[in-house]
Amino acid sequence: MPSPAENPENVKKTQDTESAEPTVADTSADSADSADSAECRAAGSELVRFDKVTKRFGDVTVLDQLDFRVETGKHVTLIGPSGSGKTTILRLLMTLLTPEEGTIKVDGQYLTHEERDGKLVKPGERHVREVRKKIGMVFQHFNLFPNMRVLRNVMEAPVHVLGLSKDEAEERAKELVELVGLTEHLDKYPSQLSGGQQQRVAIARALAMRPQVLLLDEVTSALDPELVAGVLDVLRDIALSTDITMLVVTHEMSFARDISDAVLMFDKGKIIESGSPEKIFSEPEHDRTKEFLSTVL
Amino acid sequence: MNWDWEIVNDFMPSFWDGVLVTLQALVLGSLIAFGLGLVWAMAQRAPFAWVRWPVTALTEFVRNTPLLVQLFFLYYVVPEWGPSMSALTTGIIGLGLHYSTYTAEVYRAGIDGVPVGQWEAATALSLPRVRTWVAVILPQAIRRVVPALGNYVIAMLKDSPMIAVIGAMEMLGEAENFSNTTFTTEAYTIVGIAFLVIAYPASLLIRVLERRLALTS
Asked: Could you tell me which chain B residue has the CA closest to the CA of A192?
């Protein structure tokens, strides 16, 4: 497993193996706001990096040679019509899907491939597990464990994956459940909570692993309209008060505008436009973006 | 038809012996069926074909041949090159093995019924494979299948007289033995009632369990 110290070398090797691919500097991130992307670089390294990633389902190409990166600490929102590949990106990152072509790196480490004796090979389960710990995900349908109470839902992974003691994990879980405003529900089962409450537990559960990047996959789409605001408020707080990196797929455009450092517009498996939320929402350049925004705003 | 309480009274000692054998076969046979069935079901989801294939072959073979033939095979053929076991032990293993191939299907359905989102959440939290099974998947799967498993316990009870053919004298075996030597029929009636007395509360218990387990899911 490459240690962080070896990262620069890895980057170089990708470029070697992937040959003439345009390099780090000149894709999505810098396309629009120089101020914003300069700040990205100052803030630190890239945390997520897709290089020429292609994903197909049967004959359908969902992602087509996608290059894409997210800088540490940034909140990036993916927008676009359904079927445009936004959710697929999150699922690839979470290793729920594997790409047909291309490489994905998280924090400088290969997620889809592993470097062994200078060659890129399929990674071992242990390698994937290590890299995956840096990533947390909140799902559209919450996916809480229905057989566990709220507290245990949040404690389970810290105890059995991170090896925290029961006491440490419980303390951490209680803090997070308080953060999402559900302290009085610690001993309830998910089925006793509303959808919005369940989703807030799911957010606490993901954060309990202290991931470097949080993936939010249409987290309010399955909620009754009156419950959406509570979940978004919690996420807004987290976005503004922590330095966690976020990758967000949402149809809540005002939320996207509030929290995003950058918005990427997807269509047919490609990024067709990117930039600051102000730019994308106020003065989109691409016709597809204008058309899409007119349907959701 | 004459009913002679004297004869019933004479049958009682061997009847209780038979009840004991029936209950042992049922309880131990069920434990084997529950345990082995789970092993088969999980093996059939193993990532390796060399685990899945033999298990599928074995369970299909056992499910598609008669229990009676399996009992004869275990009792008369296996000892020729393997361990020789008492009739009761053989009967318990035979019942347990036979029914494990049915409980495996029940577990399989239960496991398939756990929403894919649960596996995804476990992956997203990096839960190790064993922990995912033990803490997430099985508790949900088993909760769903308890009623179906219970039905197989009752089916097994009703198949238990078959172990008498290899000499494990359960209730019906004892009744037949008694009736043949005394030229009476009362023992059969007693045993028939005894099966009902065991089976009916068992099915009530299953229904109670079903309701209690449904609560939190």
From this structure: B216
